[in-house]
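Severity: low
Component: inverse-folding endpoint
Summary: output formatting inconsistent between runs
Steps to reproduce: submit the following structure tokens with default settings.
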């Protein structure tokens, strides 16, 4: 009869989606490591990230049960946090769960890095591949195991796109 309206401060938060109740070791963990040195690169990285994560969610999973278990980890540096949230908002509204991790890649990754198989003519590509964010993928398993109980994960480059057959 009487309609009571409660604000967000009136009681404990409740999970509003059933997939929030999956144990973390049963979640499908996807991981990205992105970085940017400029506003243009930031926009390109975010566009690719949204396309890749969106395709993993919409096409790669292939069903609601998979989508409910998907958790996308984004390790980032040089990207404005508010722009990252803004870019991911449409996917989040569709149900994609994300965990955003601000990361200092240079601090986390060893300075002893090498890329083999490229000659001097490929120095721009070699420089890009030597970036700490590219090497961070080797550090992700330990973090996900310690913090999320993950037994496995899939690391994706931001230009990876899932396509339907």
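Observed output (run 2 of 3):
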């Amino acid at each position: 009869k009487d309609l009571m309206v409660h604000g967000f401060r009136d009681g404990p938060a409740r999970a509003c989606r059933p997939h929030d109740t999956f144990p973390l070791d049963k979640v499908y963990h996807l991981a990205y490591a992105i970085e940017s040195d400029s506003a243009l690169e930031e926009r390109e990285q975010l566009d690719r990230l949204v396309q890749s994560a969106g395709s993993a969610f919409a096409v790669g999973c292939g069903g609601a049960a998979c989508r409910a278990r998907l958790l996308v980890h984004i390790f980032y540096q040089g990207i404005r946090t508010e722009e990252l949230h803004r870019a991911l908002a449409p996917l989040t509204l569709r149900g994609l769960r994300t965990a955003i991790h601000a990361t200092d890649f240079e601090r986390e990754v060893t300075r002893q890095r090498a890329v083999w198989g490229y000659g001097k003519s490929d120095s721009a590509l070699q420089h890009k591949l030597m970036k700490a964010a590219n090497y961070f993928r080797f550090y992700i398993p330990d973090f996900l195991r310690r913090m999320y109980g993950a037994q496995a994960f899939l690391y994706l480059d931001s230009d990876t796109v899932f396509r339907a057959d």
